[in-house]
Amino acid sequence: MGLFELTKHGILFSIDRVVRREPLRPHAQANDIYIASTRNLGALHKRVKEILFGTATPTNPLGAMASVTLHALGPACISTAVRLAVEVSEKYAPWIRTSVSTSTETVYDDYEPIVPGVEPFTHERYVSAIHIGIHKISSTTVETDQKE
């Protein structure tokens, strides 16, 4: 790389340091799972099962809950969240219902020049997000749905 290169976001000088800020998000509840690209799908599956059907543990002090919400930001994490939701829905059908919403989140990258005299700047970009609710349903709801 030379002194600078043209990227899809503009010119990036090789003498810059890029710092990606953590996206803003509300305080996580006990039944929220934020999907990260480094998380193992098996571990996520286990966490969903623990929240929906588990007993009280140090990581899940409230025991079994009625629902869990998966939050994912960016294409790689979104595909992981969708895959996890589909696997959980198939495994626990007909006791599970899902709901999905999408949004666009704003994230910021700070460019900090290493060379003195060059002003730092912030770049704003938009990233797709998905929020998947996985809800337990009662046996009476399942029986009513099967009769229809």
Please render the helix and strand layout as text:
Blueprint: E1 4-7, E2 10-13, E3 16-20, E4 32-34, H1 41-53, E5 67-73, H2 75-91, E6 96-113, E7 121-136, H3 139-147
Parallel strand pairs: 4-5
Antiparallel strand pairs: 1-2, 3-6, 5-7, 6-7
Tally of helical segments: 3
Instruction: Indicate the CATH architecture.
Output: 2-Layer Sandwich
Secondary-structure element string? EEEEHEHEEH
The order of strands across the largest sheet is 3-6-7-5-4
**C-alpha Rg (nearest Å):** 21 Å
> How far from one another are the termini?
64 Å
- Per DSSP E runs of 2 or more residues, the count of β-strands stands at 7
**In this structure, how is the largest beta sheet organized?**
5 strands, mixed
Uncertain spans, ≥5 residues at pLDDT below 50?
none
Average pLDDT: 80
Could you name the CATH class?
Alpha Beta
Strand content: 35-45%
Features:
148 residues, alpha+beta, Translation Initiation Factor IF3, two-stranded antiparallel ribbon, 26% helix
How does this model look, in words?
Helix 1 links the parallel strand 4 and strand 5. This protein is α+β, with helices and mostly antiparallel strands and about 150 residues long. It has a single domain (about 30-145), classed as 2-Layer Sandwich (Translation Initiation Factor IF3), CATH 3.30.110. The model has no long low-confidence stretch (mean pLDDT about 80). It has 3 helices and 7 strands. Helix 1 (about 40-55) packs across helix 2 (about 75-90). It has helices spanning about 40-55, 75-90, 140-145; strands at about 5, 10-15, 15-20, 30-35, 65-75, 95-115, 120-135. Strands 3-6-7-5-4 form a 5-stranded mixed sheet. The protein has a two-stranded antiparallel ribbon with strand order 1-2.
